[in-house]
Amino acid sequence: MNPLDLIFSTLAAFCQIYFVLLIIRVLLSWFPNVNWYDPPFSIVSQLTDPYLNIFRSFIPPLGGIDISPMLAILLLQFVGQLFSSFPSAVSTF
């Protein structure tokens, strides 16, 4: 495995791990009694909010429903697929 394959495989794995964190964040947001200042929840919040805030800045909530996580997850999955397919595309050249 060459270094470029390792870099893109690592980035693809990071995208998958971050995807799981985003899903956890979205699922926990459905529970109103979650205290985002408690240690297990604050870690998820601190890791995911900077990325989600990018999308929240230009996608306002519609009828009280925040749809920015859907776009954030779609973009993350797209980038993760690019990273995971890049090593095989480079090796064909």
UniProtKB/TrEMBL annotation:
Source species, domain of life: Bacteria
Keywords associated with the record: Membrane, Transmembrane, Transmembrane helix
Transmembrane segments: 6-28
GO cellular component: membrane
Family: Belongs to the YggT family.
Name listed for the protein in its UniProt record: Putative integral membrane protein
Protein's organism: Oscillatoria acuminata PCC 6304
Native organism taxonomy: Bacteria, Bacillati, Cyanobacteriota, Cyanophyceae, Oscillatoriophycideae
